[in-house]
Amino acid sequence: MTSNSYNSCVLSLIEGFYRLTRKLRGTEVKLAELKDLRERELEQFRGMSEEWMEKGEAYKAEIKRLELALAKESKDGMASVALARHGSLIDRAGSKRFQAKLKRMSNTQGKDQTLWRL
């Protein structure tokens, strides 16, 4: 082979390396943007789930207060509270399961977040 043919091969290798390097940089920028977006979404989710849980606790406290008032004012006492709970739309067990899922998801997201940083 002549030196001109070597030069064209070397030149095409350099051009290919440059193109791949530029593509890699673009991909790294997109990855950084996606990581940043995921971090912001996780923070929003955490904030919303904490707010949801706080509101849930406030509702529970209000229901308890109303049940105590009903028990105190009713002639049947706790029997009227039990009767009122029987027809209630509030799913006490489902709420606890939902909160447990939120806590598990938050823990899992914390682990995912550390993996993303690696």
Walk me through what this model shows:
Keywords: Coiled coil. This protein is mainly alpha-helical and 118 residues long. The protein has one domain. The protein has three helices and no strands. Helix 1 crosses helix 2 and helix 1 packs antiparallel against helix 3.
Which features characterize this protein?
0% strand, mainly alpha, coiled coil, single chain
Overall average residue pLDDT: 83
Distance between the amino and carboxyl termini:
47 Å
Strands, count: 0
How would you classify the helix and strand content by structural class? mainly alpha
Overall shape: rod-shaped
Low-pLDDT residue intervals, each spanning 5 or more residues: none
Helix content: over 70%
Number of domains: 1
| Discrete helix count | 3
Structure at a glance:
With 118 residues, the protein is mainly alpha-helical.
